[in-house]
Specification:
Length: 368
């Protein structure tokens, strides 16, 4: 069965969901003011949504739990990512997954937990690396001295290339893209069959069978207009781009992502690195948090201390209050919420889109 569906929010969650729904033959309208501007080639420090500010780290396997919803969503996304990349990859929007990811242990206890996890999940590509093997990289890694865990299948996708590729696919699948803010949702009147109404900032009134809210922090207000409370808090993240003050050399021995005390170090180009991201409650960037991050909480090797700051940016994450991220819910018949992805919206984009598609499929089969 085919439906008309409006997806609100064109970050990675909404764009990925709109693409998947259109592939299944639905008639899809995607609304977001950010659709008025092309995806930039590199993040600049202006109003960035979570997706354009993201580092794109996909940490699906190096996860201490092995059951529960969060684990299942991660596993499902990691299983879907290779097919997403293959389908979205195009000469105009090349896309690939960079692997592996290495997490440095910060203490002997953490090393022991990593070793146990790696031993129990060899089939997921996890492996413990003893400390004496960590000295081979150039430039040298921040030396925690306790060993590390290698996750062969985790890594990174470039979020800006991903968004470009998704936007390209939206055009291919005739998704209607509306560069506008949705200011209000009106539920179907009694006696009418489905038909939700969206009111846009320009006063336009659109009718659709189903609505999927993927607007991160913007979801709060849309739900409030219908009497639903789903509180979420903003958590700002800052990222730095650094240039190493040393002759350009290949990054020998470096993984796609090196994680140290929760901070990701991502080498790129010959002598550059992205480092991020801070976790700052609220919407204002704190310069002191940037400094602490650059010094890796006093674990930074001298080459990192000496690195030159080339640029920096920040974005907001939506963290559900009192509930685990993400919020994947049917709020009312015909109204779905897929928001509040907090730190893992890029990682979880494929599993989120699948959850929405499956839910809509079931709803269409059972609705009168
Ligand atoms: C610095 C930083 C680094 C990160 N690194 C990673 C990482 O390495 N890996 C990872 O998986 N995640 C990472 N994240 C988290 C990830 O970016 C988010 O979880 C994810 O981007 C959420 O995507 P989204 O589409 O739900 O929300 P967003 O990308 O925030 O998009 C929401 C969109 O909704 C639109 N919108 C809002 N209200 C309305 C409305 N009323 N009408 C129409 N449109 C509306 C907004 O304009 C916006 O474009 C990072 C986040 C930050 C800030």
């Amino acid at each position: 069965m085919i439906a008309s569906i409006s997806v609100i929010g064109a970050g990675v969650t909404g764009t990925g969901t709109a693409w998947q729904l259109a592939e299944q033959g639905h008639s899809v309208l995607l609304a977001d003011p950010s659709l008025a501007t092309p995806i930039p080639d590199r993040p600049a420090d202006r109003d960035l949504n979570g997706s354009t500010a993201s580092l794109g780290v996909l940490m699906g396997h190096a996860f201490r739990r092995s059951s529960g919803r969060a684990w299942r969503l991660r596993q499902r996304s990691m299983a879907l990512w290779p097919a997403w990349v293959e389908e979205l990859n195009h000469p105009e929007s090349p896309l690939h997954l960079d692997t592996p990811l290495i997490q440095l242990a910060g203490s002997a206890d953490e090393a022991q937990r990593m070793q146990q996890l790696a031993d129990s999940r060899l089939c997921s590509g996890l492996q413990f690396i003893a400390n004496d093997r960590l000295d081979e990289a150039d430039p040298v890694w921040p030396q925690a001295g306790h060993g590390a865990m290698l996750s062969e299948r985790d890594g990174r996708v470039d979020p800006l290339l991903l968004l470009k590729a998704l936007r390209r696919s939206l055009i291919q699948h005739n998704v209607e893209r509306r560069a506008t803010n949705v200011v209000e949702l009106r539920r179907p009147g009694s006696g009418t069959r489905r038909q939700w109404r969206l009111i846009t900032a320009e006063g336009r009134n659109e009718s659709v069978d189903l609505v999927v809210i993927c607007s991160a922090l913007g979801s709060i207000q849309l739900l409030q207009s219908l009497g639903h409370q789903r509180p979420m808090d903003a958590v700002l993240g800052q990222v730095l781009e650094l240039q190493l003050n040393r002759p350009a050399k290949p990054w020998s021995g470096w993984p796609a992502v090196l994680t140290c005390g929760g901070i990701n170090l991502i080498p790129h180009g010959h002598d550059r690195m992205w480092i991020g991201a801070t976790l700052e409650p609220g919407v204002n960037a704190d310069p002191a948090a940037t400094e602490t991050m650059k010094r890796l909480n006093e674990l930074a090797p001298s080459w990192l201390d000496d690195a030159q700051l080339l640029g920096q940016w920040h974005g907001l994450r939506a963290r559900p209050r009192g509930k685990p991220a993400p919020l994947l819910e049917e709020i009312e018949p015909g109204l779905l919420l897929a928001s509040g992805h907090y730190r893992n919206g890029v990682l979880l984009a494929p599993a989120t889109a699948e959850w929405v598609s499956q839910h809509i499929h079931k709803e269409l089969l059972t609705s009168p």
